[in-house]
Amino acid sequence: MAILSRARRIFSRARFAFCTVAFLCLLGCGRHEPRADLTILNGAEPQSLDPGILSGQADMRVALGIFEGLTYYDAKTGSADPGLAHHWEISPDGCTYTFHLRTNLVWSTGEPITADDVVYSWIRALDPVTASEYAGSLFFVTNAEGFNSGKIKDPPLVGVHALDPLTVRIQLNHPTPFFPDVCAMPVVCVVPRQTIQKYGDRWLMARPLPVSGAFELAYWRLNDKIRLKKNPRYWNAANTRSDIIDILPVGSANVALSFYERGEADIVWDAALIPSGLLDVLLKRPDFHTFTTLDTYFFRFNVTRKPFNDPRVRQALALAVDKERIVKKITQGGEKPASHLVPDGTANYSSLAGLGYDPARARRLLADAGYPGGKGFPRFQYLFNASAGGGSKIHEKIAVELQQMWRDELGIQMDLHQMEWAAYLNAQSHLDYDLSRSGWVADYNDPNTFLGLFTSNDGNNRTGWKNLRYDDLIRRANQEPDLKAREKLFQEAETMLVRDEVPIVPIYFYVGINYYDTNRIQGIYPNVLDNHALQAIGRIGRGSKVESRGPN
Question: Do 494 and 529 belong to one domain?
C-alpha cells in the first residue's frame, strides 16, 4: 500500500484525535480533584491514545497504561510476560501459538473480555482502513501482509482465530522466537470492539470508556495533563501500585527540571528533559539515572525528491557528518557515535561498520553526482520537531551543526524547518520533507525491530525508499532458524541500508536517562527497551507489593 495513501488516512484520524482531546479536556475541568499519587513528565503531547494508530513514544507510554495485549512488558526486563493471556503453547514447528486468556478478564465497565475481542483488535490493526504505521510488525502472521495491502479481503484468512471464548490461536509464516514480545506491542493491545463500532473514529470520547489495562482514562486536558485512575477490574489490580497518575506534556528541559526541583513532578523521562548545560553536574546526583538502551538517533532522506534520489548524494552528505563532534559538543550524555542503525548489544547480532567521516570522499561523490564544490546543488530543508512548551533545543542544535558541516565541507546550503510534534509526524508520513531528524527505540530485542522498518511496505519507513533485494534479505533472515546465517543476512541488509543505498544516516546511540528519587519512588527499572510499566511504579509507603506481579 502506498505510504501517501496511509498518510492521508492518518492525517484524517489526527483531526478526529484533536477533536477527541478537546472533548476530553472538558471532562476534566472540575476545580476540586484529589492529588495524584505520581506526577510524571512525559515529553511531547501525545498525538493519540488509540493503540492502532499511535506511533510516538510519549503516546505509547500512556496507551500501555490503559490498554493491554496478550502479553505485557515486564517492569524489570522490558521483555514479554503473560498479560491478558495466562499462558500459551507453541507447536513443535514453532509456527502456531495457542494463547489461553485469564478467566477473570473484564473491561473496566464490567463486560467480559473474550477471544473475539483479541481477534478483532488484531484484524483492526491490520485493516488498511485503520492505516496503522505499525501494521508491518504483524507481518509474521499468516496472510497479515496480504490483508494489510488489500490483496486479501477476507479477515478469516488471516492467521488469528478464536477457538472458544478464552482461546486464541495465531498461525505464523515461520518460527519467530520473539513473537511473545510482538504481542506486547501497543498496536495489538485489546481495544473495545463494541465502542469502536458504535462511535467510529470518535470512540475515545465514549464515557465510560472501556479499557483493558491497569488504568482508566479519567481525562485528558490539552497542554495540561492526562489523568489516569486505577482500574479496579483489571486482572492484576491488587498489584497496581498507584491510584492516580498525572502525566504532563512538558518539552522544555528547564521547565521539567524546575517542576521536579519544586516537588511538582516525581519522575522525568528522557535525556531531552535535562538542560544540556547542566548535564555533567546533574548526572553525578543519585536521583539521575543512566542505563543502556536500544535506541538510535538518525535522519531520513526523502528519496522521492531530487537530488536525494541519487545514492551518491546521500552518501556524500553522510560522509560529511562528524558524529564524534555532535556527541561531544551537543549531547554530552555519554552517547556513542553510530555508523550503523542497529545498536550494539542487540540480541544475537553484531553490525558491520557503515560509512564513517570522510569529507574528501564526500566531495568526490558530490562531484560525481554533478555538483562539484556544491555548485548547482539546490537549497533544501531539514525537518525537526519541537517538543511541548517550547521544546528541548537538542534537535535544533544538531540541525545547526549539520547545516554548518555541509556548508563548510560540501558548499551546500540547508534551511531549518521546525514543526510541533503532530505536524512533524504528519509531514514525515506524507513525505513532505527533504531531510528529517528521526529516532527509533526497539520494540523488542532483535535486529528486525530496526531493519524491518525499511522494507517497502512498512508504514514506519517514511523515506520513499523501496528495494526488493532488501525486502528479500529481511524476509529470508526472519525465516532462517540458524542464528549465524540469520545474522549474515541481516548484516547484508544493514550494509545496503547504511553504506550503499543510504536512505537514512545514523548519528548516535542514545543513553537512557531519567530522574526520580529512589527514596520516594519504586518500581522503575533500567532495561534496554526503556519500557517502564506504569502499574509497577509507586510511591514508597503506598502498595507494598513491588516485586509481585500477581497470579499467572
Answer: no
Residue 123 belongs to some domain of the structure: yes
What number of CA atoms fall less than 13 Å from residue 47's CA on the CB side? 21
C-alpha grid cell for residue 172?
505464523
Residues 195 and 328 occupy one common structural domain: no
Question: In the beta sheet, which residues pair with residue 527?
Answer: none
**What is the residue-averaged pLDDT of the chain?**
91
Count CB-CB contacts under 10 A for residue 171. 17
φ and ψ of 419, to 5 deg:
-135, 155
pTM of the model: 0.88
Any residues with CB less than 8 A from the CB of 92 and at least 6 apart, and which?
Answer: none
Helix or strand holding residue 383 (H, E): strand 380-386
Q: pLDDT over 90 for what percent of the chain?
A: 84
Rounded CA-CA distance 108/121 in Å is: 17
- Cis? peptide before 307, omega within 30° of 0: yes
- The answer to whether 266 and 520 are in contact (CB under 8 A) is yes
Same domain, 524 and 413: no
Residue 422 domain-assigned (yes or no) = yes
Alpha helices for 108-252 (secondary structure H): 115-126, 144-149, 179-182, 193-199
